[in-house]
Known about the structure:
This protein has 498 residues and is an alpha/beta fold. It has helices spanning 34-48, 93-106, 141-153, 189-201, 217-222, 251-267, 283-287, 289-298, 303-320, 351-354, 365-368, 379-395, 414-421, 424-433, 441-455, 465-468, 472-492, and strands spanning 11-19, 23-27, 51-55, 63-67, 77-82, 85-90, 113-121, 127-133, 158-162, 164-165, 168-169, 205-209, 272-274, 324-328, 341-344, 360-362, 399-406. The chain has 2 domains: 11-121, Chitobiase/beta-hexosaminidase domain 2-like (Chitobiase, domain 2, 2-Layer Sandwich); 127-492, TIM Barrel (Alpha-Beta Barrel). The strands form 3 sheets. An 8-stranded parallel sheet has the order 12-9-8-17-16-15-14-13, with helices on one face. Strand 2 (23-27), helix 1 and strand 3 (51-55) form a beta-alpha-beta unit. Helix 1 runs parallel beside helix 2 and helix 3 (141-153) runs parallel beside helix 4. The longest helix is centred in the C-terminal third of the chain and has 21 residues, at 472-492. It starts with 10 loop residues before the first strand and ends in a 6-residue tail after the last helix.
Amino acid sequence: MLLIPYPNGEVIQNPGLFVLGNAFSIAITKDTFGFASRQLKSWLTDTCNLTVTLAEPGHSSSIQFRESSGKLPKEGYSIYVSSTGCMLEAESAVGAFYAVQTFKQLIDARNGTIPCCEIHDSPSFSWRGLLLDATRTFCPLPEMFRLLDLASSLKLNILHWHLTDDQGWRLAIDGYPNLTNSSPQFYSKEDVRKVLSYASERNITIIPEIDMPGHFIAALASYPQFSCTGGPFSIPQGEGIFSELLCLGKEEALIFAKSVINEVCDLFPAPFIHLGGDEIPLIRWKECSDCQKKMKELGLKEEKELLRWFANTMAHVAKEKEKTIIFWDDSIDEHYDPSIVCQIWNPLRNERKTVGKRSLIMSNYFYTYLNLSHSIIPFRAAYRYGALLNGKTNRRSNIMGGEFLLWTEDIHTRKERDKHLFPRLVAGAETLWTDPSRLDWKRFSKSYKMCNERLFTSIVAQTRPFFANPPRLYCKIRRYLEYRRVRKNSKKSGITKL
């Protein structure tokens, strides 16, 4: 059967079809299945031009939702289709929602038929994410909602929302209202609550990222007193690795960092908050008398130890709010607080020797950075990431899952965003849901050609097949040149000594 992501349990196709009439009903047995049933009703009405009603439990209905008897995991579901009706079974609202995403792909909207079948499914990884950089290019609320719909239809369950960077601060903070002065477009707390509510219904957890102590120029432009030099600062354009950092030798700067973290933790219900921690040249701290004094007080010999102290201190602040912090893997070693989750992006670091036994989120640069050209990460490479994760999972049981990333320094429109995401995000979503032993590029490619209109919740601009999978030799050359650029930047920011 042609399904995306492909199920992990039994997929049995039986003889015959179930025929949807022009008018029929959907019955549910549990209030928590209400959103899933309403979404299915809306899709059948809009896409198949059918008249659909929601029936009370016990009524005879063509399609029924049923609570499982405790045998399914939270995100799992089962679908049973016979010539007389359809049953969608789940333990939770999450499972019912994912059942609907699969069920929609079974329906032939042209003639209103569904093949008789039995499907059992649940995901391989608990963390299936998309990072959206809304800092370099602001993403307005209607577009946020559209992307959440698209991500949820692919059974992704994490939106990593990158909200601050050198180029802008996009989140209103009551305690420091000038932070958004450099960003004419930003999210109010009411905006955030709307996004959180919309995402929650679609079983997506929003993880906010507030970059510190690096990627911090936008904050320092508004509050230069928290820097090592005192400013003034201008907002940079485009990408880059900049030396301006939060000054860890000034007590008021540390109070600022703690206050921001506390306010963000209060706003976002997710159990995690991402604090960045990547690409941090330490030259400012070496030259700053306040930072050097702080190091002496703490008995630290190197600036990298000061960065570790900061991360561990902020981890404690987050723990007081019952949150766990996430850091990129640039500087993390076994001496960082063991509760800190490490998101691994840099292919030049040997994470097995550096990050200890902490929980990991995998985002290898050459497989998941969807802002890169398709000649560096072709469609097929995004699909291969599942096999790569499988090899790592066999060695490490602490891998939570992975994320595909969309940075927006050079992406400014909806069309550009879509063409970078699609079709690669679809491939990535399957590799995070489907067990690597079940991944099959030929089956997936065929499914993708056939399932587009059933998979996507809105019209998207997709990269055409030839450009999505450029010639292999050309890709190899482009990846080599990009590898050299990553090595140069890693050395510049102190990540590696290569």
